[in-house]
């Protein structure tokens, strides 16, 4: 009887051990076979966009190990090259299907019902003008009006001391207006007679080289990008998002490339509504933008509006 009991206990322990091994192997198998979307390499191996209809890749799908984000430390040259190569591979066969200023992925207004307006001023540089509208900026400083300034690399190179003063003033938020002031395109498409970036590599350079320069000079990487002419194709939108930038459009054309006269600027601005993003220019002191802005702002304030940086609210 005693021998039978010993045998029974031995067999029971063996069965328990085998059951435990099976459960452990099972749990290991489940971990190895996690859904593809949860695997750390799932984004790296994402299928390149090669269809005729391009959906920009959301920022949450960007390479998590390589993504350039405004809060990140600068990428090493090796990582920057790796990211650029990855994006070229991802997008080189993509064919644009949309073109314009207000295509999906370009953010045109603040998400709020508050009576706030974001004034944005482009500094284009080069043949588009490397001047400085001191009258406009001095007025904003005197009246303590916040504004977001989109600075092009050529304007920055022509005005380094002015840039340093503006960047040091908390009234102003400095953002990225591109390296060569080109429409953002993967096939060279032009807007207003300005040829766009010619391919994926050119898009990357247009967006990142000026961002790198701004970051080097002021210690903060820009959050927003606005292309020269504010035109984009949908493939370029996806690339810019993958590089970690939000694309800043507008819904109030404030001075039409600094071609409006004082009354036209004034009437454009007073049409702004809650959450409006106003686009005007600060690189043409010889034009009427300053006078129009100075005439409009008191009227807008009297109507209950206040002015904020572009980053003060979510934008869409």
TrEMBL record:
PROSITE patterns: NODB, PROKAR_LIPOPROTEIN. It comes from the Bacteria. Residues 1-19 form the signal peptide. Keywords: Signal. Residues 115-316 form the NodB homology domain. The keyword Signal applies. The keyword Signal applies. This is Polysaccharide deacetylase family protein.
